[in-house]
Sequence to fold (433 residues):
Amino acid sequence: MSNLAFDATSASLEPGHQDLGAMQALRPIPRISIQAFCETEGVANPIERAGQDRRMAKAHLKVHMGGIQTAVEFYQSAPTPNLIVLESREEPGPLLSSLKRLAEVCDPTTKVVIIGHYNDVGLYRELIRSGVSEYMVAPISMVDLVGVVSTIFVDPEAEPIGRSIAFVGAKGGVGSSTLAHNVAWSMSSLFKTEVVVADLDLAFGTANINFDQDPAQGIAEAVFAPERIDEVYLDRLLAQCAENLSLLAAPSTLERIYDFEPEAFAQVIDTAQRTAPLLVLDVPHIWSGWAKNTLMRADDIVITAAPELANLRNAKNLVDMLKKLRPNDPPPKLILNQVGMPKRPEISAKDFAEPLGLTPMAIIAFEPLLFGNAANNGRMLGETDPKSPIVATIAEIAHVVTGRSELKSKRKQGLTDIIGRLKMKKSAGKAGR
Fold:
C-alpha cells in the first residue's frame, strides 16, 4: 500500500455524539469529491446525513452499498475521488489484505478513511503506517465523519473565518434591515472588532441610507464579477461607516435586473468572512435560490417578525424550512418587532412563539419617533438615544448572536419590562379617552 500517500491523523477510537457545539466549531469543507462504500445501513445513514450538512455544501458525496471489494471493482474502470470512505467488518488480517488490492487501483493522491468494527490499537497503527488517513470504529455519527473530513482537508494553520449572521424578515416592512444594521453597529462599538455589513437587497437596500453613505461601488460589482473577488478587491468595495464597521452597499437602483444563480453570493460571502470576524447579512424578504442558499449556509439566522397573522404564517414556514435545510444547527432566533402599535390587533408573544417552537430573543416596542429620527438622519439608534431601552435590547442581541452570552435571566427580565411598559401605554391611552 505504499502508493497510498496519505497523511496520518489522530485516532478516533470512540463513537461520537450529535453535538451542535462541535458542529458549530467546524469550518466548511472545501470543494472535494467523496465516495463512501458501506456494508451496513448504520454507517451509510450518518454518512448520507453528513452530505446534507451545510458545512459539506461544496463537497460532492456519493454513498455506495458494498465494502472494499465493491470499491476495488468500481475503481478498476473509474477515477478515484479526493477521499474514499470504506466500511469493513473484516478482521484485522483480512482487512489489511483487502486494502492492498485497493491500493492497486487507487490514485496516489486519494485519501482513505476506514470505518471498522474492531477496536484494535494495533490495527489502527498498522493502517496509519500503511498510509490510511484515519481509522474509525463503528458505530459512527455524522459529527464524527464531518470532523474527520475537516481534519484531513482543512488546513489547521489557515486563518480563522468570520462568523456570518443572516437577518431576514418574516414579511416586508417589519424592520429586519434596521435591526441588522443596528446590531452590526452595536457589535462593532461594544466589542471593538471588525464588522462587515452586506446589503443583499440590490434593488431596494437601505443600508446606505441608514449609515449615511453613498459609495460609488459596492456589492453589485462583486456579484457581477465573481472572478475578480479576493480580499484586496473586496476591501476596495467596502465603505467605512465607523471605526470598526464597514459596508458592502447595495446600488439601490432599478437600472439592472437582479436575477442571480443560487451560488451568486457565495464567493462574496466566503471572501468577506476571511476579512472580518463578524459578517452581518441583510437578506431581503424573497425566496429564491440564492436567498435560500445564503440562509442555509449562514452560521446563525435571525428572523424578525411583527405580531400579526401573516407574519406568523411566514415565520412558521421559514422556521420549518430552515430546520430541514440545517438539521445539525440550532434553530433560527426570533425577534418580535413593532410590538404595541396603536389600534392594531396583535398576537401575544406567547401565542406567536408557541407554534414556532421558539422563545423570542427580544421583543421590541413600536417606537416610531426613535426609529424615524434615526433613519431620517442616517444615524444608528445608539447614536440617536443611547439611553433608550431599545438600544440596551439591541446590545443584548449583539451579545447573543456572537455567542458571548446567553443572557437568559437578563433577557427574560428585559421582555417582562417591555411588556409591562406596553401595558402601561395602553392603560394610559384608555384613561386619556
